């Protein structure tokens, strides 16, 4: 699992397109408190910023699809929506975020949310 980098390390340790794409699917990198490995994805939209090229993005997505470690529902095409903004991510001067060459944001729909919700309902 890729852990959050310290600001100082980020200046000399830039992650590849493949690494940041895979990190999107890690439970620790999600903004929701559920484990996406307990469900299947229905849709994924990836927005890349900065020093990225379509060839690297297509390669990263192809690896995800062929490895099959990330589960997708069988009744929906496993297409990814991809957007590219070639402007590098911006940072606030003297802020806490490190200046990076590239970044990605994922918006997805997974059945793991249903598992999380049904577990909470049973507990109450």
UniProtKB/TrEMBL annotation:
Give start and end of each Tubulin/FtsZ 2-layer sandwich domain.
1-122
Q: Which terms under GO biological process does the entry name?
A: microtubule-based process
Q: Which UniProt keywords apply?
A: GTP-binding, Hydrolase, Microtubule, Nucleotide-binding
One GO term of the cellular component aspect? microtubule
**Superkingdom field:** Eukaryota
Keyword Transport assigned to the entry: answer is no
Name the Gene Ontology molecular function terms of this record: GTP binding; hydrolase activity; structural constituent of cytoskeleton
Q: Spell out the family assignment given in the record's similarity comment.
A: Belongs to the tubulin family.
Query: How is this protein named in the record?
Result: Tubulin/FtsZ family protein
